[in-house]
Write a structure and sequence with these properties.
Blueprint (H helix, E strand, L loop, with lengths): L8 H12 L18 E5 L7 H11 L3 E6 L2 H13 L4 E4 L5 H14 L5 E4 L18 H25 L4 E7 L11 H21 L4 E8 L5 H4 L4 H11 L8 H12 L10 E4 L11 H4 L3
Parallel strand pairs: 1-2, 1-4, 2-3, 4-5, 5-6, 6-7
Helix pairs in contact: 2-9, 4-5, 5-6
Bound molecules: nicotinamide-adenine-dinucleotide.
Length: 295
C-alpha cells in the first residue's frame, strides 16, 4: 500500500498475496540463509568425493546445522575432520545393518537437538564380486545384504526420524538409472535401487500428512568409492558423458545443490519424487549416430 493509503497496481497485488497467503512466504531471493535454523543428519560420507559430502557442503553454505555418521572406526578418522570443517562436532557411529546403532544415533540426536528437520541417506553396499558379470548369478546372501543396507536402511531411518520431525521434515536418498533400466554390471544393486525408489513413494504417502517429505535423487555416474566398485565404471562414465544432452557428467556441487533444493522449503510441494541429476541422460532412448563415431 502507498503511504497515502491508496493501492498502487503492484502494491495491491502484494497486499492480496499477503492476505491470502498463497504460499509465497518462501524467500527465493538469495539462498544464503535458506537452511538457517534447520538441523539434520548426513549419512554416507566416506571421503570428500562422496555424494553425501557434496550435499553436506551445500547445506552448510545455506546455514544448516549438521550431524554426520560414519560406518566403523576406519571411516571415523576421515569423517571427523571433514565434519569439523563444516562446524559440526556431532559425529556418530552408525552401521545401518545394526538396529542398535540406528536407535543409538537417533537417541543421541534427540538429546543434542530438540527436533530434526532432514536426513540425507547416501548409503549403498553390495559384494564387488556380484557387481560384474551376470545378474543371474546373484547369491541369496548377497541379495539380502544388498537390499538390507541399500534399501531397507532408508525405511529404518525414516521410522526413527519421523518421531523427531515435530515441525515436518524432509528425507532424501540416492539412486541410479540402473533401477529402471539395465546398465552394465549394476545387477543386484539395480534391483535394490528399484525397491528403494518404490519405498520412497510408500514412505511419502505414509509421512505426508505429518508434513514429512521423502524424495530421491537419481545421480549420473560419479567417481566415488562406491561408484568404482562397479565393473566397467570408466566405460559408463565415458558413455554417459558422450550421450547425455548436456554432453558431460555431473559434479558433486550439482548433485549437492539438488539435495539442498529437496531438503529446503524451495521444494515444499514436492514428495515421492525421483529427481534426475544426470545431465539429462535418462531421456535418451537411442543416441544420435553422429555421437557414436566409429563405435
Ligand atoms: P561413497 O563410497 O562415497 O559412499 C557410500 C557410503 O555408504 C560410504 O560412506 C559407506 O560408509 C556407506 N555404507 C556402506 N555400507 C554401510 C553400512 N552398512 N552402514 C553405514 N554406512 C554404510 O559412494 P557414493 O557414490 O557417494 O554413494 C552414495 C550413494 O549414492 C549410494 O547410495 C550410491 O548407490 C548412490 N549413487 C552413486 C552414484 C555414483 O556413480 N557414484 C550414482 C548414483 C547414485
Amino acid at each position: 500500500m502507498r503511504p497515502d493509503g491508496r493501492h498502487s497496481a503492484i502494491g495491491f497485488l502484494e497486499d492480496r498475496f499477503e492476505e491470502t497467503d498463497q504460499g509465497l512466504g518462501v524467500s527465493v531471493v538469495g539462498n544464503s540463509k535458506l537452511m538457517s535454523g534447520k538441523r539434520g543428519i548426513v549419512m554416507g560420507v566416506a571421503n570428500d568425493h562422496s555424494i553425501a559430502w557434496g550435499v553436506a557442503t551445500k547445506l552448510r553454505e545455506a546455514g544448516a546445522e549438521l550431524a554426520f555418521t560414519y560406518q566403523g572406526e576406519a571411516f571415523a578418522k576421515r569423517v571427523r575432520p571433514l565434519a569439523a570443517s563444516l562446524d559440526s562436532n556431532l559425529v556418530l557411529p552408525c552401521d545401518v545393518e545394526n538396529d542398535e546403532d540406528i536407535d543409538g544415533l537417533f537417541d543421541a540426536v534427540g538429546k543434542a537437538w530438540e527436533s530434526l528437520d532432514f536426513v540425507v541417506h547416501a548409503i549403498a553396499y553390495s559384494d564387488k564380486e556380484e557387481l560384474k558379470g551376470r545378474y543371474l548369478d546373484t547369491t541369496r546372501d548377497n541379495f539380502a545384504r544388498t537390499l538390507s543396507i541399500s534399501c531397507y536402511s532408508f525405511t529404518a531411518l525414516a521410522q526413527r526420524a519421523q518421531r523427531l520431525m515435530t515441525n515436518g521434515g524432509s528425507l532424501i536418498t540416492l539412486t541410479y538409472l540402473g533401477a529402471e533400466r539395465v546398465t552394465p554390471n549394476y545387477n543386484v544393486m539395480g534391483v535394490a535401487k528399484a525397491a528403494l525408489e518404490s519405498s520412497v513413494r510408500y514412505l511419502a504417502a505414509d509421512l505426508g500428512a505429518e508434513g514429512v517429505r521423502v524424495n530421491a535423487i537419481s545421480a549420473g555416474p560419479m567417481r566415488t568409492l562406491a561408484g568404482s566398485a562397479i565393473a566397467d565404471a570408466r566405460f559408463v562414465f565415458g558413455w554417459t558423458k558422450r550421450h547425455a544432452p548436456l554432453r558431460r557428467n555431473v559434479d558433486l556441487g550439482e548433485v549437492g545443490a539438488a539435495g539442498l533444493y529437496l531438503l529446503s522449503d524451495l521444494s515444499k510441494g514436492v514428495t515421492g519424487e525421483v529427481h534426475y541429476v544426470d545431465g539429462g541422460y535418462h531421456v535418451i532412448g537411442i543416441p544420435s549416430p553422429n555421437d557414436l563415431g566409429d563405435g
